[in-house]
Amino acid sequence: xxINKWKSVAxxxxxxxxxxxxxxxKFRAPASMISKLVDDYVExxxxxxxxxxxxxxxxxxxxxxxxA
Length: 68
Prior knowledge:
Layout: H1 13-25, H2 30-48, H3 53-61
Helix pairs in contact: 1-2, 2-3
């Protein structure tokens, strides 16, 4: 497995069970569902900050954090 392309994460078992159920309901693999959730969140936050999605991602990856 290419470690530059894929990473493993630990998820609480209760969250994993919910993720599996959501994924099954939407005909997606759990990894695809996580990608969709991340993408949707980034899009939502970028819109909230009045930025493009790409600009928001660059801000995040450069250490800029969004204030909660």
